[in-house]
Amino acid sequence: MTKKYLLIIWLCLYYNAYPQQNNFVIPDSLSTKDYEYFSKNILYEERDSIKESLYAQSWLAKAKRERNYGQMAQSYKALIYTSDKKLQLIYADRMLIAAKKTADFALIGSGYMTKGVILYDSKQHMKALDNYLIADEYISKTNNQYQIYKVKYGIAQIKYYLGFYDEAIALFKECLGYFKEENSRAYLNTLHSLGLSYNRTGKYKLCSQMNQLGQSEGLRFKNLEMQSYFIHSEGVNQYFKHNYPDAIKKLTKVLPALKETKDLTNETTAYFFIGKSYWALKLQEKALPYLKKIDEAFQKQKYIRPDLREAYELLIHYYQEQNDKELELYYVTALLKVDQVLIKDYKYLSGKIHKEYDTKNLIQTQRNIEHHWTIIITIMTAIIVILVYRHYKNKRLFEELMNRKPETIQSLVSNNTSKELDINPELITAVLKNLEKFERNKKYLEKDMNLAKMASLLNTNTKYASKIITRYRKKGIVEYITYLKIEHIVELLKNENLYRNYKNEALADEAGFGSTQNFTRAFKNQTGLSPTYFISELKNQQHS
């Protein structure tokens, strides 16, 4: 018996050490097992399990031998959950390659979702979002409700991370009802995430309700894994409610559990809000060790978030008052490095990270201490150059937009084109006439306009609608609808003074956008100008 287990251990260590080799031999004890056996004996919970890793390798070898790409994809997924983190992305890519050969939308979507989860766990959030969106594209074509809501939850997490809290709340709410009936752990995770989102939007009472519900539901489901996270969330929530002693008590209580699970993210967050609570209580000396933990996490693990950067500001302020130039300079320099990371990793948040201690003043402080004035002058000159360039660029874009005539789109059908599209020319002509009617009646302003609805209005199917619009309007469906919406708003603003008094929210609603943020982003991408700037220049022109 001992020899048997030693053999299993040796095989697993050998094949995990060389994941790219192809000559794995299935042990005799597993050679007659079917795919269902392997699937049932891998629990997807214990990472680095020797036994499960052997099953996964055997599963893969069997699938390769039989050229069963669907089972190959499933076995690679099993290897992801039984292997070292360094190998997970490799196996995720191989899972996708195998899944794509099956043409199974659910399996391909699962592959992209799995890769997104790995990227999210490794803090590559924008890449994770890209994979979640592709997963959503595939899974939305299936009836796999669990996968549909799993993708939705992943996208909600990314939106929360990027600061789009209202959008995240809407998605978490959609997930909540489904997971409650289907998956208790996913349900508890969603309650926790929803509570965090409520906290970020200042809805502290709702946050407390989610935390209380999460703890009671955990007891009902006999699943206590999330208890410490709900307590942690409520500790942070109590800080924002100015109940600082309670915040300290709750966050201190959960620290041992977070350390045990090596949850650096929530451990660092706990240190931050314990430190902030002591600071708010005017107990700065007690706050310092906790605030310094933020720098410790950054130096050792390169972990940081925009909200945690305030710890550096407090430390700099403290050592300025203590006239400790050495430590002040250390934290000033460290904060500059932090900002470099944040600007790189949080592209969509770069406008939010310089609120109370902006980079210009930070650089000024550092140079004052080091007496390197030349660098300050260079930076200020660069800023002035950028501002001047931006001013004239905006002026030029405004003039071009004002002088531009509304674009007319020709709809000419040639035999060559119809052959390229492999669609009956008469059908193309009919669809284009309906498309002109669609544009003329401004149907694109409807909020729920999508490919399926367009295809119905054009009296064709989604495949032909997509091909014809892409060929004759030179744009993808989403790009095409967005383009028309923005062109509509531009013409309204140019020609009707009334709309120049509208806020961005009202303009977004007028154009049929789902959110103000999506409208302003689309306007900027299409015109090069923000709607606020464009309206301001129109008003200036009107009064001049």
UniProtKB/TrEMBL annotation:
Protein's UniProt keywords contain NAD: no
Pfam families the UniProt entry points to: HTH_18
Keywords carried by this UniProt record: Coiled coil, Membrane, Transcription, Transcription regulation, Transmembrane, Transmembrane helix
Annotated transmembrane regions: 373-392
Gene3D superfamilies: Homeodomain-like (1.10.10.60), Tetratricopeptide repeat domain (1.25.40.10)
PROSITE patterns according to UniProt: HTH_ARAC_FAMILY_2
GO MF terms held by the record: DNA-binding transcription factor activity; sequence-specific DNA binding
Domain named HTH araC/xylS-type: residues: 425-537
InterPro entries given in the database record: Homeodomain-like_sf, HTH_AraC, TPR-like_helical_dom_sf
Coiled-coil ranges from the UniProt annotation: 428-455
Name the record gives this protein: Helix-turn-helix domain-containing protein
Species of origin: Flavobacterium xanthum
